[in-house]
From TrEMBL:
Signal peptide: none annotated. It comes from Streptomyces inusitatus. It comes from the Bacteria. This is Portal protein. InterPro entries: Phage/GTA_portal, Portal_HK97. Pfam families: Phage_portal (PF04860).
Length: 380
């Protein structure tokens, strides 16, 4: 990621939402990443990552006098980061750009009174260019217009040493996606033609042009209606296309889904692939833990560090990854009991997790471990 903020400015909006996104209308040409998104595995993988990250609560922490981080009020940037849509939409756009193009470009369009960004609009990657990808201090252009230092907020994924831009997974694995798309198109054509491949009608007899035309017409008419074909004249049907079971296009699609899952680090079974072994998850919670640990955590760490650069050094942005873990009621209550016993949480905090009101009179504010409470009562 790259970020340079040499100065701070007072509140202003020099570029409007319309300046960034335009007035609407189609802009996708159906090539590149848009073409790749037509592949179910690519769409599923990028959607899984974008949906998972965007659905996590984003919180702000402030360093206390002792250096420990404590929850703080959300700054405007994390409450309403863009002019259109919600924070979920904003995070989703960021992740979609990162997973498809390896880069997310944000135009800083507003600042708070302290000079820190308060609103950022994500730009279409095709509209952003860089003067020198190897430069220590990059010079950015938006639709051919040079941007001032600090106007562009850039997050990169899959970066090579010495370079500013991230690598695009779709561009670097174009062969994988093209193979899968060709297999899908073959399957579509196969079923669109009624599973009837191109063929040759053979006979030992001499057939003139008019008779040949009649034979072909009769065969096409019967094949289109899935009817029995009676051609006569000793005509035999010989297919010349590769049969579907021999082409193995379904196996090709599954193999491509596994490769795409490996590229994005997502479980193959979530994008139409197969695990290739008998591994099963014992619980939904364990499934979520594995997805969070091996797939989402690197993305969360990358975004947390990038977003923290948009705030003062004493503040940090963090995702609440625990919100993704869904447990059954018994397990959740057992966890609450342990947390209260060791003094990790007080009763009011645990009630808040269950969306309940605090106990009256401050009775739920005590953090004293229950073991110590029991010991004190025994001594008394």
């Amino acid at each position: 990621m790259s970020w340079w903020w040499p100065f701070r400015r007072k509140e202003k909006r020099a570029i409007s939402y319309q300046d960034v996104w335009g007035s609407g209308g189609p802009r996708l040409s159906g090539v590149g990443q848009e073409r790749a998104l037509r592949l179910a595995a690519v769409y599923s993988a990028t959607r899984l990552l974008a949906d998972s990250v965007a659905s996590m609560p984003l919180k702000s922490f402030r360093a206390g006098a002792d250096g420990s981080l404590r929850p703080g009020l959300l700054p405007p940037l994390f409450r309403r980061p863009a002019a259109a849509g919600t924070r979920y939409d904003w995070l989703h756009r960021c992740m979609t750009s990162l997973t498809l193009r390896g880069n997310a470009y944000g135009l800083v369009v507003a600042h708070d009174q302290a000079g820190w960004p308060s609103q950022i609009e994500w730009l279409h990657p095709d509209d952003v260019s860089i003067e020198d990808n190897l430069a220590v201090v990059p010079v950015w252009f938006y639709k051919g217009r040079r941007l001032e230092p600090g106007q562009l907020f850039h997050i990169a994924a899959y970066t090579l040493p010495g370079q500013t831009l991230g690598l695009s997974p779709i561009a670097y694995f174009a062969t994988t996606t093209d193979t899968a798309l060709l297999a899908a198109e073959f399957g579509r054509d196969w079923f669109e033609n009624g599973s009837t491949p191109a063929a040759v009608l053979e006979t030992d007899k001499v057939v003139d042009r008019e008779a040949a035309g009649i034979l072909k017409a009769r065969f096409k008419e019967a094949a289109a209606g899935r009817d029995v074909v009676a051609l006569g004249l000793g005509v035999k049907y010989r297919p010349i296309s590769v049969p579907a079971n021999e082409s193995q296009f379904l196996e090709t699609i599954k193999a491509s889904a596994n490769q795409i899952a490996a590229i994005y680090g997502v479980p193959p079974e979530k994008v139409g692939g197969t695990t290739g072994n008998n591994l099963t998850y014992t619980t939904v919670e364990q499934n979520s833990i594995d997805l969070l640990t091996w797939t989402l955590r690197p993305w969360l760490a990358r975004l947390e560090e990038a977003f923290s650069l948009l705030r003062p050094p004493s503040e940090e942005a963090r995702f609440n990854a625990d919100a993704m873990l869904r447990t059954d009621t018994l397990t959740r209550y057992q966890t609450h009991r342990i947390a209260r016993q060791i003094g990790l949480n007080n009763v009011d905090e645990l009630r808040q997790v269950e969306e309940l009101e605090p106990l009256p009179g401050g009775l739920g504010q005590d953090y004293t471990p229950l073991v110590k409470v029991a010991a004190d009562e025994t001594e008394a």
